Amino acid sequence: MTEKLSVAKIPMHVPPMEEVQKVLSDGLSKNFADVAVSVVECPDLTQPPFHLSASGLGGNQRLVDIGGPPFLFPLAQRDKKFTFRQIAELAESKDPFMLGAGAGPAHVVGVNSEMMNTIKLQADGSSINKGYISKVDKQTGGCILEKMPCDEFCLMGNFLVCDGAPGKVLEVKASRRTGEEDFSRCLKMSLRSHYGDKPVGLGGVFLIEKGKAHLHIMSDFSETPITKESQGFDLRDEHFHCFNQQGQGGHYHWDTTPEEVEYRAYFVLPEYVYRIDKPTNKVPWEQ
């Protein structure tokens, strides 16, 4: 973790929230029966049902994209370890609240795991870490959900970084899915179809208030070289992990009960994206 990491700071296009409100409303309405998008004051996200480490999503919002799937190929690069404070400094955040998805600290947990990150770093060096990891139960094949054991992670991460302050957010409600696109992909495609090559980002939190979803937990690292995979290798254009209070969590893919699903989300529009420790290795089939 003393290795000097590469950093690229990329400005984002930040349209008015009211404009994005209409873009998301129009896009989601093609895929959900009931849609309501509003600009509101952020609720207190430390309270149920959110259980996050800071109350808001305001103040110096930026996205960070650390490492990536190439660090798994052909074998996991177990030396790719990061601290949240290290990443916050590289992202030029002086009062960091960090929220998002990534790989848990395998060097501490002992196995690969999915990370649901929510951490507020304090000026005195302490932290409010309410994050979780989920890993595969080797006995049953089920999910084991545990509290984050430390302020570190490995391999990859996709976070919203902000001050955790109150402020205006986009409240997105969508229910009864009628189309093929899952919630996160529909958000992405709505922005892409309207803004084209202009980079517009969303960072925040969503709830599945009703219905069920398909999540995955990556199994432990392979002991033999992996020779194929299907993910991209630069900026990851969507990444959400979920957890609940019933001991479940993992990487969100899609809802499995479209006729009854209900989503509620709160998003902000980050000003920058920081690409940190971009992998330089190529997978075997690209060489």
Summarize the structure in short.
This protein has helices spanning 17-29, 84-90, 106-109, 183-195, and strands at residues 7-11, 32-41, 62-67, 81-83, 97-103, 114-121, 127-129, 132-136, 143-147, 152-162, 168-177, 203-210, 213-216, 241-243, 249-255, 262-268, 272-276. The protein is mainly beta and 287 residues long. α1 packs across α4 (183-195).
Question: What are the SSEs and their pairings?
Answer:
Blueprint: E1 7-11, H1 17-29, E2 32-41, E3 62-67, E4 81-83, H2 84-90, E5 97-103, H3 106-109, E6 114-121, E7 127-129, E8 132-136, E9 143-147, E10 152-162, E11 168-177, H4 183-195, E12 203-210, E13 213-216, E14 241-243, E15 249-255, E16 262-268, E17 272-276
Parallel strand pairs: 3-17
Antiparallel strand pairs: 1-17, 2-11, 3-10, 4-10, 5-6, 5-10, 6-7, 6-8, 8-9, 11-16, 12-16, 13-15, 14-15
Helix pairs in contact: 1-4
